[in-house]
Design goal:
The protein is built from twelve helices and twelve strands. The protein has three domains: 5-148, 2-Layer Sandwich (Beta-Lactamase); 153-225; 229-402, Histidine kinase-like ATPase, C-terminal domain (Heat Shock Protein 90). It is of the alpha+beta class. A six-stranded antiparallel β-sheet has the order 3-2-1-6-5-4, with helices on both faces. It has helices at residues 5-13, 26-38, 74-82, 125-139, 142-148, 154-189, 197-225, 236-248, 272-289, 307-310, 336-339, 358-368; strands spanning 40-48, 53-60, 63-67, 87-90, 98-103, 111-117, 256-259, 295-305, 314-315, 320-329, 372-377, 385-391. It is elongated and about 95 Å long.
């Protein structure tokens, strides 16, 4: 049996979504051509924010329009899709109805794509499969990445970090030896020039610079070892208390840290060492982003992750029970162009004298242990950034207790 002409021409068009482009106009252009080739009257995309859909693009062959209002049926459609349905048909008078499916860019909250026909001809199984296939290609398209910023390809990112970790390990060893000599001889030289204050001051500065180099080599060591799983159980409350104490002593801006981590929280399946590295890096980022005398709120809870929620986290996250640690700052928030680079470029940073390794280490550590992370903007009117860290239970997972 032959396919309807709309599906045939639509299938022939699909490879165009895979063309590389940096043109910001390519997204709307391809959408219009896709709708035309598919033989539809119109289509639409409901774009997600961190919490709920708030924006709809309506596409016709002759243009794209942005609407502030959402379809009234959308909450029911979302519930049906999240329950496991691949597609949903919403019946409309004198029409074939709207055909919906989920839209899931990697590492982003899920959205919805729908289509309407020009006729009342019923949607077929072939139509459903064609829409799902189209959306899978659109999710990975260069045009989408140009519109919303780089999309994280988990496999490619892990390979990049793995390659970087090998180089980092070699560099850390060699630089460590060099810095040991620099710091050692600088410290030995200070007493010898005690009568020349300026010389002593300069030599002390050399030693301080060497110490900053040591901190960087420590991060290189962390990146090198972050891919090794150490699933021995540990306590989130205990590890957090240690990291909070360490960072509080290094806190020049007087940032206040408030914690509501229950002491009786179930243990997690990550050894205290790598868990401290994960919490320490994210907590330090939150403190750096906070204004002087600002605050950072840290909480933790047991959650049951759904299939849809699991897709919104970066890492190796499967549906099921986790311990979620949330670290919230109240700074200016992350600009969209900066946020788009956080995990795509493992060495990206906006901080002076930093090398951007912190989140790369966090990501690789969580992946090695079956955890994940999601960084999102605070819910308005609050400003700031919320980091959500998913930590696995030990291999024998207990029942989630809310």
């Amino acid at each position: 049996m032959s396919l309807p002409s709309g599906i045939t021409s639509g299938m022939a068009f699909l490879p165009q979504w895979m063309q590389e482009t940096k043109d910001p106009n390519s997204w709307n252009k391809l959408l219009c051509e896709w709708v035309s080739a598919s033989g539809w009257r119109t289509a639409g995309i409901v774009w997600p924010t961190e919490t709920q859909p708030t924006l709809t693009q309506v596409v016709q062959a002759n243009g794209v329009e942005t609407l502030p209002a959402l379809q009234a049926e959308l909450p029911d459609v979302v519930r049906a899709l999240r329950s496991g349905s691949g597609t949903v048909i919403w019946q409309l008078p004198n029409s074939s109805g709207r055909l919906y499916t989920q839209f899931q860019p990697s590492g982003r909250p899920a959205g919805i794509i729908w289509a309407e026909r020009t006729s009342a001809e019923p949607w077929t199984e072939a139509d459903r499969n064609y829409l799902i296939l189209s959306v899978r290609m659109i999710e990975r398209s260069s045009a989408l990445a140009t519109k919303i910023g780089p999309i994280v390809d988990a496999e490619r990112l892990l390979q990049r970090l793995s390659d970087a970790s090998v180089i980092a390990g070699r560099m850390a060893h060699d630089f460590g030896n060099i810095l040991t000599g620099i710091i050692g001889f600088a410290d030995l030289s200070v007493p010898l020039v005690g009568g020349v204050p300026t010389a002593a001051k300069y030599i002390s500065e050399i030693s301080k610079i060497g110490q900053r180099g040591v901190q960087f080599t420590q991060q290189l060591h962390q990146l090198h070892g972050s891919g090794q799983a150490r699933p021995q159980p540990s306590s989130v409350a205990t590890v957090f208390a240690k990291e909070e104490s360490r960072l509080r002593s290094q806190n020049p801006n007087g940032v206040h840290i408030f914690s509501t981590i229950p002491p009786q929280l179930n243990p997690v399946g990550i050894d205290a060492g790598p868990l401290g590295i994960v919490i320490g890096h994210v907590l330090e980022n939150a403190m750096d982003a906070s204004p002087p005398s600002g605050r950072v709120i840290v909480s933790a809870r047991s959650i049951e992750l759904s299939v849809a929620e699991a897709k919104t986290f970066l890492g190796q996250v499967s549906p099921g029970p986790f311990i979620e640690v949330q670290i919230q700052d109240f700074g200016p928030g992350i600009k969209p162009d900066v946020r788009a680079k956080l995990f795509v470029d493992p060495f990206f940073t906006t901080k002076v004298r930093h090398r951007g390794l912190g989140l790369a280490i966090v990501y690789r550590t969580l992946v090695a242990h079956g955890g994940g992370i999601r960084i999102e903007s605070a819910t308005p009117p609050v400003t700031g950034t919320l980091a959500r860290i998913l930590l696995p239970y030990p291999i024998s997972r207990p029942t989630v207790v809310q």
